[in-house]
Amino acid sequence: MNVIAHPARPITLLHAFSTFAVGGPQTRFATLADRLGPKYRHFIASMSGRTEAASLLTEAVRYELVQFANSPANPIGNALRFAGELRRIRPDVLVTYNWGALEWALGNLIGPRLPHIHIEDGFGPDEARRRFLRRAWLRRISLICTRTVVVPSRNLERIARREWGIPQRRLQYLPNGVEMARFGASLPESEWAFAKKAGELAVGTCAALRPEKNLKRLIRAFSSCGAGHSRLVICGEGPERPGLERLAESLGISDRVAFTGYLARPETVLAGLDIFAMSSDTEQMPYGLLEAMAAGLPAAATDVGDIKSIVAEPNRPFIVPALDEGQLAQALGRLFGSAELRSRLGQANRIKAEAEFSLDVMVRAYDRLFEKAASVVA
Fold first, then answer.
1. Domains parsed from the chain with CATH numbers
2. Which residues contact 26 (CB under 8 A, 6 or more apart)?
3. CA distance 164 to 132
4. 71-76 contacts: CB < 8 A, separation 24 or more?
């Protein structure tokens, strides 16, 4: 683990999230905050009022949850209130996350004009298949004075440049990173989050159970892939769970589909899997896939965002068109059918993750980004 040198006075960051429920951006923030240590102090604002992700923060993280009045029907009023919050707290840097937090960016334009970093991770279900012109223009306006727009995928970098009008000089591609040792460690079966029968193979995914993850597609593909002595494991929680459970029951495979709920340690699922799968309508650079690669798993997934370029080259034939459920089933069937293939692809994915997506590289990059922005007001 790298030690981050810190000044006498901590650098203060205000992080504005649409929600601080547990998700990819929130998990990345918690990991970063822990690694960055006492060099930084964090103020965390959740537009939805949900703060479950605070449970991911360790005692080493200096943070404060910001309480404020938020009116979803009054974005201009929100921006004015947020401008007041920024003047009151006066952080060194404002950090906003995704579309849902852009009213904080507008508030910064109205108010103190602090150094601002915007981190964009991708799209929700309403933008999965089409963009909204109004949102593109609002992004242009909100981010007009933003110091840096950070994107974790090349696909999103192209969208930010072409649709949102962000100049290349203000764009920074910064891929997500995972802790290789954590996910590469072998765990005894007693620590696995699910039970496997003797000789049973398991495919699984780790994701929030939301519509854009389209886990019904995965359940149907698993049902038709032709692998008899096998199990599907779904790690995560969300509003889609009741419908997913009903679908598994209607297909007659409920006894072969395990729902673990949310787990703070996804490695306890990955350790027992033979295959990792994703069936999303939209992704950019999903943490679940990087963690699976670090765990040495082969992947079958839909070809959205940067997924095909993320996995090792030998694994790319198993990244299939999102709308072709049959091809996803065939990819799963091929992987279930060959232990040698699973091992070879898993090893290639592990090697690529270690070379390109390590946590230490990501932490150093964010430290430089925050420190440089804070130096503007130092």
1. 11-177+358-374 (3.40.50.2000), 180-356 (3.40.50.2000)
2. 17, 19, 20, 53, 56
3. 11
4. 75/103, 75/106
Three-state DSSP class for residue 167: coil
Dist CA 365 CA 369 (whole Å): 6
Please write the tens of the pLDDT for every residue from 119-132.
998 765 555 455 56
CA dihedral (225, 228, 234, 239) positive or negative: positive
The pLDDT tens digits for 180-227 are 999 988 899 999 999 999 999 999 999 999 999 999 999 999 999 999
Q: Which token pair is 49?
A: 């009022």
Tell the burial category of 136 from Cβ atoms under 10 Å away from its Cβ (0-12, 13-18, 19+): middle
Q: What is the mean pLDDT of the chain?
A: 92
CB 232 within 8 A of CB 329: no
- pTM (predicted TM-score): 0.76
Distances (CA, A) of 325 to 202, 211, 220: 19, 16, 8
* Interacting residues of 117 by C-beta distance below 8 A, sequence separation 6+: 93, 94, 95, 96, 146, 147, 148, 149, 150, 369, 370, 373
Largest CA distance in the chain: 63
